[in-house]
Amino acid sequence: MKARALRLLSNWFLWIFLLIFWAICSILSPFFRTLSNFSAIFLSATPIALVALGQTYVVLTGEFDLSVGAIASLATAVASVTMEFNLVLAIVTVLVAAMAIGLVNGFSVTKFRLPSFIATLAMMFVITGIALVIRPSPGGYISEAFQKIMLLDLQGFPITAFLILVFLGVFGELLLQGTSFGRHIYATGGKTQAANLMGINTDRIKTIVFMISAVSAAVGGLFVAARYGSGNAVAGAPYLFDSFTAVFMGGTLVTGGIGNYKNTLAAALVISSLTTILQFMQVNIWYQYVIKGLLLLSVAGNQLLIARRGGYRFERG
Amino acid sequence: MLSLVSISKYFPGIKALSNVSLQLEPGKIYGLVGENGAGKSTLLKILMGVYKPDEGYIIVRGKKFRYIDNPYFARKQLKIDAVFQEPCLVDNLSVAENLYIDRLEEFGKGLLLNKRLIEKESEKVLKNIGEAINVNQPAGSLRIDVKKIVEFSRLFITNPDIILLDEITAPLDMTKVKRLFTLIRNFKESGKTVVFVSHRLGEVFEISDEIIVLRDGKVAGTVSNEGAIQGSNMREKVIKMMSGVEIGLVFPEKKKIEKPQKLILRVKGLSNEYLKGVDLDLHEGEIVALAGLSGHGQSMLIRTLAGLVPKRKGEVYIEGNLVDIRSPKDAVKNGLLYLSDKKEEEELWLHHNLIFNICYPSVKERSTLSFVKTSVERRLSKEITLKLRIQTPSLAQPLMNLSGGNRQKVVLGRKLLCRPKILLLDQPTMGIDLSTKKEVYFLIRRLASEERISILTVLSDLPEIINIPDRILVMRGGVIVKQFPAGVDEDVLLDSYFG
Questions:
Q1: Is residue A251 part of a domain?
Q2: Residue A31 lies in a domain
Q3: Lower CB density within 10 Å: C or N end of chain A?
Q4: Which chain A residue has the Cα nearest residue B51?
Q5: Contact check, Cβ <8 Å, A310/B92
Q6: Whole-model pTM?
Q7: Nearest CA-CA partner of A275 in A263, A257, A291
Q8: Number of compact structural domains in chain A
């Protein structure tokens, strides 16, 4: 009985952290208890959660995707020039381009044997350059219909954003824990050599995962585009760091193989809650970074604990 | 059923296999023997699609292949499967998931996995081979011998026709080996082909129908093991084929100790999670072996003495002084040097040269204000290399060019530089070829008698246990249950394992 409770606790640790955090803030601040506050939290958490989805999968396989921020920016840039023609076509273009980028990332790592850190770093520069060519300065046209749908709210509650978060949480985690593909991801990250010997095509898994990362980053970028109403070649940059922060805060090991998405999602909410509070209190932007950094440090102690306990508990839902 | 025709394989700087041709029939067990570097693992890996031969081809059931693409192909299409020397389980997945890892799709309803079914099936498989363990625990938490059994049990799931076993008995004790042999004989009865690689010649003679000897990448000969007449001359014949030289006395003579020797180590009531009150004495220049079924505390005892595992109760006295050992650093300070049985723990810097690997761990002793005299290190390395007879063209060789046996000597060498009073050796000869093993035996005896180093070693090979040490301590359930002098009868010793 006690062991099961402990296991449940450790599996959902970041959600517990999040709820306690929200509880404390709600008690301390009347503003926090308002709908507009939570609305802001969910809206700013959505792109982070999207970008961090793919990043979680990539890190679980033992790699890193440094190009996600640039892909998000590129998504806004491409959307801002194509949406004036046809909304659906614009979205399709963005997604196809993202898949292609993911494929190239995957090949660089699996066929050309480049360390993913270097390959995706290079890709980040290339993509940023392309984005700047398409959109040298912020602007362009983002379809109003698109904005309306993305930012749809019911009595002040951002329903689309919320549904996206729920969808991500449910399916992002389900893919990892409940499917054979998910198991293959864990095997690839856990012990690549052994996985290969046992018949898993780790190269294929890694490539697919890079493609998922690129697409989820692109969708994140589309959401950002909807919020700003314009394209911006550098709008996605902060999401790179936020994605890693969310992934590691959520208990995924830097070396891969152990971790899950649901805690990453909770971490995304923690990050956006923090940002929202600090913005409301009109704290100097400098402090926001410091606090984010300290928070990450404090939760990073996790990594050692997780690795030592074998961490298996964490990857089972 | 399976033929290898003129297979050659090159690696940078070395010809691992040279014109190897073999024919393997169904329903037979082939023992593959040879020294380290003779090419056994390479051969198996070629059959398993991990390596591609540079010359020659393979014929499986009448179909000819220039090479085998990958393990998946070997397993699914050619029905060849293997259990390798290196641990091959994914640590962060459960035992059940590891067993079925390349077949998980078969357990899905749509996209989702039926986890309960996977559990049930794995439990069935493991029960059949007599290993009842919790299939939900992470594979990384299993003890090394249980891991090997789990890997072995995958064979019952993939059900291959050709089975390759590479040094799988190394981490196993007698009872498990016997169980395994029964299962392997069942494979033979069902008409499968089994290739069994082991350094333990006793096992090879027990199980094989035919013995294939590799030396320097070539087939040195094959010997039939069928028929009642075996005898020691066949063993010698095989050993001669393996090493090309006559191996005389395998074990060194023990020195007759007349007067009582100085007491170096006294342990009283040592207890922790794995030990339940261990008492032992170790004298100067003495070799004592810890024996018994694996997992009964032998490794844990010396790891506790080495400061790797904390103790809860008990006292340790070195040369009469009570010592408190809380970490490996404390142990080394007190002259206790530990040699691990786990390859990962003995850090070998494969890209660095011999001098670095031998001298670095004790570098503080020779440095003044952080500066180290390279000439001193070179001299010391040369001494050690000569003393231990490490075979290498030069001291500047990167460690990865050395064979397993020589690497082990390097590890031993680096311990010697730390001026040990007591050497704690955990399976020092595991996985090493025969001639190096012999050298290690003589070396241990020389260290004990000439340099007055006391040695406490965990051994699992019966001939080694009986012939090398001066005293044998049998452990069971975390305590020492019996003590024997050297030369005890094998059956008496085995009996004491079971109580």
A1: yes
A2: no
A3: N
A4: A197
A5: yes
A6: 0.76
A7: A291
A8: 1
Q: What is the pLDDT along chain B (499 residues), one digit of tens a residue?
A: 889 999 998 877 677 888 999 999 999 999 998 876 678 888 998 999 888 999 999 999 888 999 888 888 888 888 999 998 888 888 888 898 899 888 887 777 666 778 888 888 888 888 888 888 888 888 888 888 889 999 999 999 888 999 999 988 878 888 888 889 999 999 999 999 999 998 777 888 888 888 898 887 888 888 887 654 455 667 777 777 776 655 544 677 776 665 667 888 999 999 988 899 999 999 988 899 998 887 788 889 999 999 888 888 899 999 889 999 888 888 988 989 998 877 667 778 888 888 888 888 888 777 777 777 888 888 888 888 888 888 788 888 888 777 777 888 888 888 888 888 999 999 888 767 777 788 888 888 888 888 889 999 998 777 788 888 889 999 988 899 989 888 788 788 888 887 6
B164 and chain A in contact, CB less than 8 A = no
Query: Whole-angstrom Cα distance, residue B299 to residue B304?
Result: 9
Interface of A with B in 10-69 (CB under 8 A): none
Answer whether B113 sits within 8 Å of A179, measured CB to CB.
yes
Residues 173-202 of A with CB under 8 A from B: 174, 178-180, 183-184, 186-187, 189-191, 193-201
Domain boundary among B376, B402, B417: B417
Q: Is residue B353 part of a domain?
A: yes
Coil, strand, or helix at residue A151?
A: coil
List, as ranges, residues 110-129 from B with C-beta within 8 Å of A.
111-113
Phi, psi of B209 (to 5 degrees): -90, -35
pLDDT value of residue A28: 83
Which of B417, B440, B472 is a domain's end point?
B417
pLDDT band of residue A130 (cuts 50, 70, 90) is very high
- Please indicate whether, in this complex, the C-beta atoms of A199 and B75 are within 8 angstroms of each other: yes
Tell whether B35 and B85 lie within a shared domain: yes
CB contact under 8 A, B104 and A198: no
Q: Determine, for residues A195 and B90 on separate chains, whether the beta-carbon distance falls below 8 Å.
A: yes
Q: Flag whether B107 is in a domain.
A: no
B90 touches chain A (CB under 8 A): yes
Q: Chain A contact for B71, CB < 8 A?
A: yes
Pick B93's closest partner by Cβ from A174, A186, A196.
A186
B101 within a domain of the structure (yes/no): no
State the smallest CA–CA distance between residue B141 and chain A in angstroms. Answer: 8
Provide the residue type at B26 as one letter.
Answer: P
CATH number of the domain to which A118 belongs? 1.10.3470
- According to DSSP, the residues that pair with B482 across neighbouring strands are B474
Is the reported ipTM for this assembly greater than 0.85?
no
B204 occurs within a structural domain: yes
Please tell me whether residues B215 and B268 are part of one structural domain.
no
Asked whether residue A15 is assigned to any structural domain, the reply reads no
> Is A50 a member of any domain?
yes
Mutation target for B interface from A175, A180, A188: give the one with most B CBs within 10 A: A180
Look at B91 and A197 and tell me if their CB atoms are within 8 Å.
no
User: Are A233 and A135 a contacting pair, CB within 8 Å?
Assistant: yes
Which of A61, A197, A255 is the best substitution to test chain B (most B C-beta atoms within 10 A)? A197
Number of Cβ pairs < 8 A linking chain A and chain B: 83
**Domain region containing B321:** 253-335+420-499
